[in-house]
Amino acid sequence: MISQTDRDICMSPWEGPGDSPGAVAPPIFQTSLFAKPTFAEYARQQAAEHHNFVYSRGTNPTVAFLEQLLARLERGEAAKCFASGMGAISAVLGGLLRSGDHVLFVNTIYGPTLQLAEHLRRFGVEYTLLPEPTADIEDHLRENTAMVYVESPGTMMMKVLDLRVLAATARRHGIRTVIDNTWATPLLQKPIELGVDVVIHSLTKYIGGHSDVIGGAVIGSADLIEELFYRGYLLFGSVMSAMEASFVLRGLRTLPVRMEQHEANAIAVIDHLRGREEVTAIHHPYADHPADSPLVTEQLAGYSGLLSFELAEPTYDRIAGFVDALELFRIGPSWGGYESLVTSPIRPTSTPEPPASLIRLSVGLEGAQRQIEDLDHAFAAIR
Ligand SMILES: *Cc1c(COP(=O)(O)O)cnc(C)c1O
Which residues are the signal sequence here (predicted)? Predict the structure, then answer.
């Protein structure tokens, strides 16, 4: 259940600066800089750039309004938006880690995040990957572990971690925890309430929701966001524009109703896939856990529409044949938009073993009946 508090936050009227008599949509501050009345005032504001509108590589009122809403949705003190999810991730890893630090990645992690971690080796940052969805991380922590970075649910196998246990373990060792919360959105999971320190989102997915904007965000304590602002944000320069922020704000208005529909459609699709003999496994919290499992009831307020499944006899030709036979589900990367999408990590050369044999569906808003018909049509095509 999405709370009324969160619905209210998504609907918040514009509270930013400027004279906007009755404007229902947040004004787009399409300006690179903000001139000041005196030099003294300029100097004062520039000395605390994260609090003042000085230059749009730093802060901008349209972007700041979005940041305020995202921080409130995640129950964090502050947020910073970025030009992409990867911009947010590179700011967190590159801006907060030092040479000699070690990062522990837990669960299935977004591929480019691990590629970035590999790149950071040249700056003296080490990492290990624990691909299982386990909160039992104690034995994998090192003397120099500075960050535990997780995805839960992940976005390939959708496995869920016990975030409360994981965050408490890391905290006992004085280690910062970071989660990529993109699958659940802030409406369905609030990691900060479970003890996690830093939340990352790709706004490109459900929060934007219309497949027309790329963006990212980081939410955490005011101190952490300030530290991030002056290092990973201002210096790396992965800046969200006012125009993009207005697209994401429009997405937020309908996020609660969209997530409810994605959930309803995904549940109907999963219930149908369960009855298909060609499907050997389905990966999604609704399929993996009983509805009353504490891991689900205590962490997730609902389900999103990204799932994967495995075909019987998962050869490349069968998977490509199935994907090509779909018509409603379009072939492409990304997910979380209004439209249904399909992809698979399988490649012609790879061995037909999970997880390479997965088919991943982003169940859109077209309606479960249409989606199920399309899937049945594709099953018939590979018979
Ligand atoms: C898409 C995605 C990202 C990266 O976001 P971009 O906006 O594409 O840079 C990060 N994490 C997850 C889980 C994603 O799905």
Answer: none
